[in-house]
Amino acid sequence: MSNTIELKEIVELFVKEFELCKVERGETMAILSDTTSSPLYVEAGLAAASQMGADAFNLNLLSRAAVGSTGGANPLVDNQPAIDALKSADFMVDLVFLLFSKEQIELQQAGTRILTVKEPPETLKRMLPDGDLGRRVTAATKRLERGRELRFTNRAGTNVTYRLGAYPTLGLRGFVDSPGEWDSWPSGFIFTGAGETEVNGRVVMDTGDIVFPFGTQLAGPVSFEIREGRVVELDGGADADKLRTYISSFDDPKAWAVSHIGWGLNDKAEWTVDGRSGPGVGIDGRCYYGNVLFSTGPNTELGGKNDTACHLDLPMRNCSLWLDGEPIVLDGQLVPDDLRAPGR
User: Fold this and answer.
1) pTM to 2 decimals?
2) What is the distance between the alpha carbons of residues 182 and 91, in angstroms, rounded to a whole number?
3) Which of 292, 284, 248, 297 is CA-nearest to residue 101?
4) What value, to the nearest 5°, has the Cα angle with vertex 194 and ends 145 and 240?
5) Where are the domains of the chain?
6) Are the beta carbons of 217 and 209 closer than 8 angstroms?
C-alpha cells in the first residue's frame, strides 16, 4: 500500500469517526500532539476536519520524555497558554494521552470534548465504532450506575467485592458527542469505582492475563490481597516481583490503592498485546468482549482525589461478575440479552 493510499484511507476513517463525534461546519477542532506523535494522524485529522468544514489547528509541543521528565508528566503541565488555546476548541483530538491528568479535567470542565487516539491504523479500522456497540455500552452503563455491590471471581481464586455508589460510571462508546465528554477511539468498555475503603477480597490474575503499561501477558498467577481498598500483599513468581518493584518505585503510598473496575463489550477486540502495525496503549485487551478489568492507582478520572502517577490496568479473561447478585459475566461470556453482541 502506498503512502498516498494509506493517507487517503486514514482520512476516510477519521471522517467517519468525526461524524460520530458530531463535528460540524464552523466548529473549532484542536489536535494536541507532541514530538513523539504520529505525523500521519496529525495530517489525517486536519484533512478530515477541513473536509467537514471545521476550523482546525494542531498544537505540537515538546515531549516531556525529550527533556527527561518522569512520573507520567504530560506536555501541558505548567503550560497555561497551551491549555487556554485548547479551551477555545469545541472538540480536541488527543494524540498525547492526557488521561488521569488535572489538565484533561480542566479542559473537560471548560466544555471541550476530548477524543484520545493512540492505536495503530489497523486497530482504528477494525474497531471503528458502530451503533450496536454504542447501544450495548449505554445499556451496560445504566446497569452499572444502578449497582451497589459488584463481585467478581475466577477459577484461579479471585473473590473480591466492591461497594459502589461513591463515584459515577463512565461508558466508553468510542466517540464523543457531548460537551466535556472524554472517550477513546476505539473503545467499548465501562467502569466505575468503589469508595476508597470499600474493596475487600483477593484478585488472582491467571496465566495469560494482561498487564498494562508493560504490555505483557503473565507467565503464571499473581495474587493481590486487598483490604479496605488497598493492596496489602502481592504474591506470585517473577511477574509478581516485577509488579511489586514497579509500584514501589513511585515511593507513593497512594500507588497501592485499588482504582476502577469494569468490563469489556467490544466483540471486534482481540486478546493481544501486539501492536501489529504500530504502537498503542493496548485498547484491544482493555475492551475485549467479556473481560473484567481490575486496576490500581488513580481515581481522578472518576472525581476522586487519589492522584498517584502509578496506574496499572489489568485485563482478565474467563472471569464471572455479578451486580447486586445478578450475573453479568459468567466465565468470560456476557449474560444479559441487552449486553450481548450479535451472534454471541
Assistant:
1) 0.89
2) 10
3) 297
4) 125
5) 3-117, 148-169+191-334
6) yes
3-state secondary structure of 307: coil
Q: pLDDT tens digit string along 286-311?
A: 999 999 999 999 998 899 999 999 99
Question: What are the grid coordinates assigned to 150, written together?
Answer: 459488584
How many alpha carbons lie under 13 Å from residue 226 in its C-beta half-sphere?
A: 28
Q: Digits of tens for pLDDT over the chain (344 positions)? A: 334 458 899 999 999 999 999 999 999 999 999 999 999 999 999 999 999 999 999 999 998 765 433 345 799 999 999 999 999 999 999 999 998 889 999 999 999 999 999 999 999 999 999 889 999 999 999 999 999 999 999 999 999 999 999 999 999 999 999 999 999 999 999 999 999 999 999 999 999 999 999 999 999 999 999 999 999 999 999 999 999 999 999 999 999 999 999 999 999 999 988 655 556 788 999 999 999 999 999 998 899 999 999 999 999 999 999 999 999 999 999 999 999 999 99
User: Strands of 113-117's sheet, edge to edge?
Assistant: 55-61, 28-34, 91-94, 113-117, 182-185
Cα–Cα distance for residue pair 110/98, rounded to 1 Å: 15
| Topology of domain 3-117, CATH | Rossmann fold (3.40.50)
Neighbouring CB atoms inside 10 A of 64's CB total 20
User: Rounded to 5 degrees, what angle do the CA atoms 307, 92, 48 make?
Assistant: 150
DSSP 239-284: HHHHHHHHHHTT--GGGGBEEEEEEE-BTT--S----TTS----HH
What whole-number distance in Å separates Cα of residue 202 and Cα of residue 114? 35
Q: Which of 26, 50, 296, 63 is nearest to 160 (CA)?
A: 296
Counting DSSP H helices and E strands in the chain, the numbers are 8, 20
Q: Which of 7, 11, 99, 9 is nearest to 51 (CA)?
A: 11
Using the CB atoms, write b or e for 196-205: b if 16+ within 10 Å.
bebbbbbbbb
- Asked whether 108 and 114 are in contact (CB, 8 A), the reply is yes
Q: Where are the alpha helices (DSSP H) in 73-158?
A: 80-87, 102-109, 121-126, 131-146
